[in-house]
Amino acid sequence: MELQAGDTFGRYELVSWLGRGGMAETWRAQLMGAAGVTKSVLIKKVLPEYADDEAFISMFISEARISATLSHGNVAQVFDFGQVEDEYFLAMEFVDGKPLDKVLKRALKAGLGALPVPVAVFIAMEMCRGLHYAHTRTDGSGKPLGIVHRDISPDNVLVSYEGQVKIVDFGIAKAQLLRGFKTEPGVVKGKYLFFSPEQARGEEVDARTDVWATGIVLYELLCAKLPVEGPPQTVMMKIAHGQLPAPTTLRPDLPKELNDLVMKALAPDRKRRFESSHAFGDALAGFLHAHYPRFSSLSLANLLRVLFRADLTHEGRELSVPGDFREEVKRWGVPALTKLLDAPPPEQVQTRRMVRAVAKPPPTETTQSDAPTIPTGRSRKALYGASAVGGLAVAGASLWFLMDARAPAPVAPPVAQRVAVEMPAPKPVAVEAPAPKVEPPAPSPVEEPAEMAAAPAPAEHLEEPEPTRPAHSTRKPSARAVRATQRVQAEEPKPVPVIEEPAPPTVVAASAVQEPPPAVAESAPAPKKGVLGLLDSKRQEVQQKVTSLVKTKQQQFSGLLQSKDYDAALEAANDCAKNNPGVPECHLMLGDVHAKLNHPRESTQHYETFLKLAPTDHPRRARVMEVLGKTGATD
Fold first, then answer.
1. Choosing a second label site near 172 at 20 to 30 A (CA), which of 97, 439, 532, 544?
2. Are residues 167 and 283 in the same domain?
3. pLDDT one-digit tens code per residue, 422-454
């Protein structure tokens, strides 16, 4: 059944949709108790297309049976299991925070390079506590259940804004409690990048497999990179032979003691590893207390609140960070984090978002995504202006609307109003010369000083022209703009070269803007002054910015591919396609990175989109067609 926020699902009320995985989707919900008592939970519901898959349902039920027996501070607890209209679901503890993989990505975006050493060590230590509890669980007679998670990775670890670390998804765990649900030797499950050597060989696993995976997670937190990357056969061959570089090869400043702990957890021979997650956790605790004695869960909570400050502000939440946290950060030796603490709060950014939300609500649960922090300044404003949806759509739509209606009276009002909103200077003519000395004499009563004086920067007006002035007449602002233009042209106290200066030659790449420049030149034969000149100049400026930004993205993307940082490359390509959906190079980058990640369906989809958008003479077009087999050639 199709669910929406506010629906009743069994004895739960759905609050918001959180995400969709390969076989299940998750919702934030409220358990509705008697007398208005409620409890926040996470609903994990099997997708309808898998409701009749007996193997998957068996695995899903096993997750419920195993997880329901676990009650530990480092394990997300399962409260309920059942069916609603033939759909199985789990009701789990709702962790108010972020998955560990998103924490690491946000730290990289903030310029930290990787997580600070005490943060990474603390998280791994807490993971060991929860895993050891699961490994040592027994049944009613005291017989060990033999639970092994076997799917430990950053996306199965949650970190709360209170500093808690919780493991989730014991869905593919092996437990002797479950008759008939035992993975046979030779069958591997989980994520191959985190496989232990015995898991890669398809052998029987035990608790030391989770020790290995925890070591891999710690390695990635410390170095911001996995020890081995590549296709499954390459990765598993290197893992099986223990061909892993030491963490200090990627991060030379790591203490040797910590490097040795990580490498012991990653010993190819399980007999040489830590004998249990408890032993690994104790070793990490000893290092943490010796080098960072003041570190605690509150330190982790403060870091999360700093990294996700913009997300929290967007949600209307205010989670405080004590002043003494700055002193603790200094002892960690992470200058980028100190700079992040000194950054101004994102109230202004969020204010613009809230104004826009009046006209168009944001997508459901955008706060659950790892949205990048938006820095202030002219560079980011230029990016907003260069956005295909924002800059090109606004300038282009205004220009073509003006072209279609030749009568000046009905066309001038909306164009004049748009120019007043978009130009960065306080006056309609002086686009780039906002100095007070060029300001015309005292205006007539119909001049609009309120809107123009209230604009500290052009990007803010680009964000909110429609919600703030929806009821203005179209003729009145046009008259004001025309009279102001006439006054400045007649007076000319000093020449303002911005309008008279011819726009640079239109040398925009065909891949950057779908609308060919010659068509614009034929429709609008280079007006010298007035609104037409302003719009044409603005359109060309936007085209150039789009071209420049896409080239920058391509250079960044190429560097990430060469360094085999495929996750960051995927993120860069997604960002390019999101801001410029009509640019073929963005889809070409997505096709390339999905091919590297061995995602054939996604790669083919983006390559096909590239072929639809790219011109026939694009230099990469023939190669893409060859890869897709459209010419009969093989790669």
1. 97
2. yes
3. 444 444 444 444 444 444 444 444 444 443 344
How far apart, in whole angstroms, are the C-alpha atoms of residue 74 and residue 168?
9
Check which CATH number belongs to the domain holding 108 and give it: 1.10.510.10
Same domain, 165 and 258: yes
Q: What does the pLDDT look like over 156-188, one tens digit per residue?
A: 999 999 999 999 987 554 443 343 334 444 444
DSSP string, 355-392: HHHHHSPPPTTGGGS-PPP---SHHHHHHHHH-IIIII
For residue 32, the 8-state DSSP code is: E
| DSSP assignment letter at 147 | -
**Nearest residue to 95 (alpha-carbon basis) of 152, 37, 173, 26:** 26
pTM over 0.85: no
| Residue at 303 is within a domain | no
Torsion angle, alpha carbons of 92, 96, 99, 103, to 10: -170
State how far the Cα of 211 lies from the Cα of 226, in Å rounded to an integer.
Answer: 16
**Cα separation, 442 vs 321, whole angstroms:** 49
User: What is the C-alpha to C-alpha distance for residues 269 and 197, in angstroms, rounded to an integer?
Assistant: 8
Structural tokens at position 577: 């396609």
Question: Residue 81 carries which DSSP code?
Answer: E
The verdict on residue 326 lying in a domain is no
pLDDT at 115 over 90: yes
- The verdict on 26 and 153 lying in the same domain is no
State mean pLDDT over 214-224: 97
What is the per-residue pLDDT across 13-44, written as a single tens digit (0 to 9) for each? 999 998 887 678 999 999 988 888 889 999 99
The C-alpha atoms of residue 22 and residue 14 are separated, in whole angstroms, by 21
Residue 565 bears catalytic tag: no
Same domain, 22 and 138: no
Specify whether 432 is located in the same domain as 483: yes
Q: Measure the CA–CA gap between 35 and 313, rounded to whole angstroms.
A: 32
The answer to whether residue 373 sits within a structural domain is no
Q: Quick one: 240 and 149 in the same domain?
A: yes
Sign of the C-alpha dihedral computed for residues 80, 99, 596 and 150 taken in this order: negative
Q: Which of 52, 101, 151, 311 is catalytic?
A: 151
Q: What is the average pLDDT across 290-294?
A: 94
- Domain identity same for 518 and 573: no
What CATH number is associated with residue 35?
3.30.200.20
List the single range of 54-68, 307-321, 531-545, 546-560 with lowest mean pLDDT.
Answer: 531-545
- In the block, tokens 């944001």 appear at 362
The segment with the largest mean pLDDT, out of 242-251, 496-505, 562-571, is: 242-251
